[in-house]
What we know:
With 89 residues, this protein is an alpha+beta fold.
Amino acid sequence: MPDSFRHNPELSRYELETNGLLSFADYRREPGRLVIPHVETDPALRGQGAAGRLMAKVAEVARAEDRRIVPICSYAAAWLKRNDPDLIA
């Protein structure tokens, strides 16, 4: 089953569903910035790259909206540093 990425504005987060299990990134929008205070993945998905795939989608959203990312979450910060450092605010 492929991943399903969605924006959940009611909870202010982006979600990635994989085989019925959820990974999510909480966010706060600021002018020109997307603040990511928390990223979480269902424990059953850990080690399978789900959080990385979620962050790749979040990076796509930020780029499409011409925003830089403020990674408060240590995972988000590490992922951005390794994969997309130009997006870090």
